[in-house]
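Thread: quick sanity check before group meeting

JM: Hey all, I'm pulling together slides for Thursday and realized we never actually wrote out the predicted structure for the chain we discussed last week. Dropping the sequence here so it's in one place. If anyone has concerns about the input, flag it before I start.
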Amino acid sequence: MLPNLSLYRTHQHWMKLALELAQEAGKAGDVPVGAVIIDEHQKLIAQASNRKERDKDPTAHAEILALQQASQVLKTWHLNDCTLYVTLEPCPMCAGAIIQSRLGLLIYGVDDPKSGVIRTVANFPDSAFSNHRLSVITGVMESACRSQLQEWFVQKRHQSNLPSG
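JM (edit): ok, ran it. Output follows.
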């Protein structure tokens, strides 16, 4: 098998897991975002989904929860040899935490035109204030990630327009 094809299949494998986690979040009332972190041996060390609504916590984004979990597993906040897969481009809070963790590689599915600060609204990793140069791959399973989010928001809007009682 060609190395690039093998690598792409690996990225698809982990993004599919992130999408499954995102689906769980959506069913529970949270914006459907899922995150997975693997170590340098391609071993799963953390997985999380958005939990803001369930936990009543504004910091309970999938990326933050996965970073915390990975740091506990590895017993260090230095995640240099780790890869984070997330379905949606990280927001400012998550991007800051990713940069602070010295993450080795960030892979995300779809751009966030409202609050994505990796490449869309801003470019935190390449900014002067960033003390870590983050490697980034975008667009892995982009259409599946986009569809999942769009369908959830359509359903949410529909539910809020239904008459009560």
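AS: nice. The two ends are 58 Å apart (CA to CA). The chain has a mean pLDDT of 94.
JM: adding both to the slides.
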